[in-house]
Amino acid sequence: MTAPAGPVLSPSVPALRAEFGAAVTRHAVSCSDTIVYVERDRSHDVLAWLRDTPGQQFDYLTDVTAVEYRDPERPLEVVWQLRSLPRKADLRVKTELAKAGPLEVRSVWDLWRGADWLEREVYDMFGIGFAGHPDLRRILMWETYAEGYPLRKDFPLRGHFSRAEQTRQALAANPEAHYSMEELSIADAFDELPADMRERLARGERGFLK
Amino acid sequence: MSLRTVELALATPGVDAEGRATRVPLTAPERTPGYDEDFGAEHMLVNIGPQHPATHGVLRLVIELEGETVKRCIPHVGYLHSGFEKLGEYRHYNQIIPLTDRTDYLSPMANNVCLALAAEKLMGIQVPERCRVLRVIACEMSRIISHLVWLGTTGIDLGAFTPFLWSFQERERIYNLQEMWTGARLTTSLTRVGGMMADVPEAFEAGLRDFTRTFPKTLTEVDTMFTRNAIWIGRTQGVGVLTAAEATNYSLSGPMLRASGVDYDVRKDRPYLDYETYEFDVPVGEHGDIYDRYRVRLEEMWQSNRILSQALDRLERLQGAPVNVSDPRVILPPKSRAMSDMEAMIYHFKQVMEGVKPPAGEAYLGIENPKGELGYYFVSDGTAKPVRWRIRPPSFINLASLPKMCEGALLSDVIAINASVDIVMGEVDR
Prior knowledge:
The structure holds 2 protein chains of 2 kinds. By secondary structure, chain A is α/β, with parallel strands linked by helices. Chain A is 27% helix and 21% strand.
């Protein structure tokens, strides 16, 4: 068992502190990865700056995800793994979201198209909203999934509903409910829908969580 | 993404009083002058999948067509969602390894290696050299079988049946070796935190040597069959093009990224497992189309074969060297000792009941999987089960560029483009 190389702080951290001052709340080095915590309202500015500033050039968004800790007091974290392909450097940017406050950050879809599905997945699994995302809807779970957000710690491993209820809902699902609103509008199919489905759509009975 | 799609996508979601969808304005096709009204007036919605052999798994594509041209492609994923990330939070680090088999099930050994490396990074462990060589062998064998599946199925999608048989025949030989080593063909669970499940058996090295000697023959045959084949070129060149800037912006990785001309390979640029000491080249495409993706993957198989024979040389040199770390807090003691030595038995018990305990902290580690960069991100609070286990799924992220690539393509090209992404739905949906 050899000790890992001593903690090496990414040179982007002092540069970020000089540029954004108090908006960079703290930083840490864990397993030789540098982590920078930024304020929620400035996260988009920080990420845009990191992408566009010569000398930083974090042109590649490796991953977007979120973390919830077992300690219920701790805030949720949104994590952006950034990489600079030309400089071969990595940086992890995080922002903390208090559970009492609005679970929302600015989307980085306008900076990296790769964020499209990644942000949808975070929304799907954690219920964190991304303001400015053009198409924020569930991706892995189905659109009418009503049990909540699976990767939250208050979500039981087997789901909120009983197995019987889950089966009942699956059997009761309408085949046409597998088309999203968007697709129905493309097909111009509204007039061809059965009356009961039109009625349900009129009541807003799909696509949104209850 | 074109301006048109952005505008449509930004429209407010919801329904009007009647229940009509207001999320997207109903399409009014742009009329080309002289275009026949009968054909041009209507857009058609085509649903492909989820049960369709050409979608390579349970992928569903909803495609808006104008004539035969794709106006928009909306992928639906999640049919195979198993909640692996959630399950990982309820398991010890070593118990997560069987879950990784089932994500990208075309390269299970490489996933196992990534998990072990990520957990070891979290714990600050360096494994012995023989273990690193064995892991390189596991990764490169996985790359070859995964690319062979890609080659065979893509050939079938585009109407070429014979290369499918050739590639699956070769793949079978690797699977036999895999079975010899791990006892399983699919769910290998090969690695452990701090070492391997097993060293290679006796006949393995000779078998793999034989493979590396004869495999180039098949590659040459495939090359002869495809590379200058007029039909293949016609179906693949200039189809599904992504520029280097787009590929980077869409966070693509692996052969998809390199085919677009971005020279980034995790093995070269953030070396792990001593990859910097192996001699191999990273093929980089130029046009970012399906043909270049094919060339990149084909060349990668040649290079993997090169790495395999180098790794076999090293393995010979390291005959009898230790595979696992000697720390009993990390790795199980040998079974013979656990049955005779009190201390070893205690360690065995603690290891099985309590699991490996990394310190509080977090680590992200990405490796170059056949599909692209596979990354595991662990957050630990010092207990034996991770607080968060995040998979950075290369197939999922690569697949997100599908709507972009399909825009303006023909319907039959959608099948080719989708095949060129090289997805595994087990990993897309996790």
